[in-house]
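Can't attach files on this board, so I'm pasting raw text. These are the components:
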Amino acid sequence: MKFEYAPAPESTSIVNIKSKNDLFIDNEFISSKKGSRFITINPATEEVLAEITAATDDDVDLAVTAARKAFKSWAKLAGAERAKYLFRIARIIQDRAREIAVLETLNNGKPIRESRDVDIPLVAAHFFHYAGWADKLEYAGLGSNPKPHGVVGQIIPWNFPMLMLAWKIAPALAAGNTVVLKPAETTSLTALLFAEICQQADLPPGVVNIVTGAGDTGRAIVNHPDVNKIAFTGSTEVGRFIAQSIAGTKKKLTLELGGKAANIVFDDAPLDQTIEGIVNGIFFNQGHVCCAGSRLLVQESIHDELLSLLYQRLELLRVGDPLDKNTDVGAINSAAQLVKIQELAASGEAEGANRWSSSCQLPANGFWFPPTVFTNVSQSHRIAREEIFGPVLSVLTFRTPDEAIAKANNTPYGLSAGVWTEKGSRILEVTSKLKAGVVWANTFNKFDPTSPFGGYKESGYGREGGRQGLTAYLFAGENE
Ligand code: NAI
Ligand code: MG
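---
Top answer:
Structure tokens for the assembled complex are below.
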């Protein structure tokens, strides 16, 4: 039964968006000499929110120069002193959490319930976690005298703008690196708010630099000769391009790319709990999640029962105004991403899969796609192979555990996977055979700053989070 709720919109009066935004270099907001500006919008309404600077090669050079200068003293600072700054940033994020969550939802389109309850609390948690590491680097597993790389270039995507910033900046600073970070072109506003937080925390000038812009700005960071390491999260296509660009240089690289995760449901799984896990797996954040459970593998004997429960549940998802506290599924982040989802969904129908979509009403303006499920999907279909990055689930079936494992691993990706069964022995057996960086059992999309996250194969290399994520920003120095 669907309960009707009165609208419960979160107020936007707490955010203060500048109409024209500059770059954050050496602790100051400075305007680009030659860079043009582009607009950023609210994807749920298509309203213009602000103008953002497209940083040029010269701007990136200025940012790298500031980061290089800052590196000398930041790296020498006692770990406990660097920790104080990180703890301060974490506390300011908690203080300003509501403001950050509203701004994130405005610029990204994700439901306020998620930005408020998931993204921003995890952002603070990452800064707290790595603040704790800053004076314990000798326990990272790289000998008694690990060293930071130097200036790190970080390029992040639009699906979790603040969370990806935290995953990148917190361990880099704890380890003693300085950073030049570029947010995605559609979601720059919270990164610019983070720049203000760095000022508020009295972070020394040049330790964090934020340069906005699109692919050209990203390329300028990747190709800058004085950058020591690149950390990238985004498409496999750009990840491959970055790997080629820096091959033959001494630059270090970590890549966190796409995924096509299998979420495997055995016939003994607790169905109600599993339904919630499937929904969380693919409809959380509109499915704009690299580790989304986008391929549902269901044991044949429970296929019909599970699907009928799933359709009932999906009809209850509230799709619409992301600022409404009752909303479950928000807007697609950009017109371009919507086109990609529409194109792949059309290919599913053309290749013979059966499409089911929620009967929800979609708003007239903005970018929207209804929660959608494809059944009768075969492994060769594009919707079973390619990352859709939207609220679209592809359902395949299996009869035996071996078949489930073979189908789950039949992908060029290997970021995450899920297993639903009551049997502990089956969990151990199946999870150990899945070629994925993260495997969840009887849950999905659980994130924690202490657990490493990253992929196999075309999902990238390197780990973020936990001790492993810290070591990506360090190398073993001479032991003392
Ligand atoms: P993208 O890979 O183009 O963008 C990610 C970041 O890379 C952005 O900051 C962008 O400005 C930057 N970038 C783009 N070209 C670059 C270049 N040549 N050098 C350096 N930086 C560059 O991803 P896009 O186009 O936004 O999304 C396309 C698809 O990629 C999505 O549909 C999805 O399948 C996948 N994707 C995966 C993500 C993940 O979390 N693993 C995140 C975003 C997208
Ligand atoms: Mg792109």
